[in-house]
Amino acid sequence: MADVTSIFDNPLYTVQQKTTATGNNQIDKEAFLKLLTAQLKYQDPLNPMDNTEFVGQLAMFSALEQIINIGDTLNSFVSTKTKGDAMLLGASLIGKTITTTSSEEFTVKGVSYQDGKLKVDVGSKTLTLDEINGIKA
Asked: In the predicted model, what is the mean pLDDT of the chain?
């Protein structure tokens, strides 16, 4: 099997990794594609890249893209599940009496999901879950 990491070991090319605010180093698919293109552009025409090495690097790029797509799909799933769980919790509150952190009591009339948070409608105002201290049957 060809060494698919040789593009990173070649002294002709320098990989500068992206550094995020948290200090994590990563190379994204755009950087990988630019690096692969640069390798093809500047290769020695008398000694071109081995076909198996090139195919290996293309396979590596394809795998990277698929992993990114899977990550995006999982993030979307988690976001949808979080919203669904919040709405399910909110639906169970409808008709119940809640006590707020300021010791007020309200009967829940409805719920909504806005700005990534569950909002509880009590008629005169809308509360977040952080403002609810207790639930009465």
From this structure: 78
